[in-house]
Design a protein that fits this description.
By secondary structure, the protein is of the alpha/beta class. The chain is built from 12 helices and 9 strands.
Length: 302
């Protein structure tokens, strides 16, 4: 289902070579003022908050004379490393306030925060809504056998994974009866799909905004200890110096916003209506249905 990708070093090498070619005049054409109009954006395949926002912005920029190159990375650590070193220009969907705080503590001094594009994101554990007796994380220990002692998680390097392991599991004593099983977001969703189709028990790590909340019969478990923390905002991050090099693009991204409904519909289109590798086409069709978004963003590139 998911296509093969170049290794991280190879992808970064390609991106750096492309930047070098542009700098020597061998890359894409510059604007009327001779300024470089090539933007490199990072994406973790399968993370739809990144692919949705990245390809929406890519479509708008390319419709307005820019060249946008996509660098695929396999987790947050290489993503933040690449951004801090300037190997990529922009990370379109970051959770720097809480979920990605450890990465910001390490790399934040070398990054620019271009602003908030979504307010009130949350992380939580979830179970199917047909599990009527389980409504709080506090309820899980008494039902560990039903879940085979497993919490189904996502990527090892995800901020959600760190929060679950370091904050949530200790706060509720889940380490006694549960093991956090890690793999990937697509693998977690596959297990969720199998379980809900058969109406079997499953507990997963989950977050909002995310299209799966609208497509699967799940409910967020209450967190009376507040182990996941307060809701946070999603930001657009850039490498240091990006606003000076690309002031119009930085202004556009600083004015980029999505509602929960907009976020859900673009993610849903990417996942459910298009094949892997067709994210750009999905975003283009979404923008055609939401021309006001494209017009508002494009106004900052004039």
């Amino acid at each position: 289902m998911f296509k093969r990708h170049l290794s991280v070093p190879a992808r970064l090498g390609v991106a750096m070579l492309a930047v070098a070619l542009v700098a020597t005049g061998c890359g894409s054409d510059g604007g009327a003022d001779g300024a470089d109009k090539t933007i490199t954006m990072g994406v973790i395949p399968g993370w739809t908050d990144q692919s949705a926002t990245t390809y929406v912005l890519k479509n708008v920029m390319e419709d307005n004379g820019y060249t946008v190159e996509i660098t695929e990375l396999n987790d947050n650590a290489p993503m933040y490393t690449a951004l801090s070193k300037g190997d990529i220009d922009v990370l379109s969907s970051a959770w720097p306030e809480l979920t990605h705080k450890t990465y910001m503590d390490t790399y934040g001094k070398d990054l620019e925060d271009l602003g908030v594009f979504f307010e009130g994101a949350t992380s939580f554990l979830a179970v199917p809504d047909y599990m009527e007796d389980i409504n709080s994380i506090d309820d899980l220990p008494a039902h560990a056998d039903e879940f085979d002692g497993t919490i189904t998680g996502i990527e090892p390097g995800a901020g959600l994974t760190r929060m679950t392991k370091e904050d949530v599991v200790p706060a509720y004593g889940l380490d006694k009866d549960f093991e956090l099983q890690l793999s990937s977001t697509p693998a977690m969703l596959t297990e969720l799909g199998k379980a809900t189709k058969a109406e079997e028990p499953i507990v997963i790590t989950m977050w909002k905004p995310f299209w799966a909340n609208l497509n699967f019969p799940i409910k967020a478990l209450e967190d009376p200890e507040g182990a996941f923390g307060e809701p946070e905002d999603l930001h657009v991050l850039a490498r240091e110096g990006f606003s000076d090099d690309q002031p119009e693009v930085a202004e556009m991204m600083s004015n980029f916003t999505l509602t929960e409904e907009e976020f859900g519909t673009i993610e849903g289109m990417i996942v459910n209506d298009y094949e892997q590798g067709e994210e750009e086409e999905a975003a283009a069709d979404w923008l055609a249905d939401n021309p006001e978004v494209a017009d508002e963003l494009a106004a900052h590139l004039a």
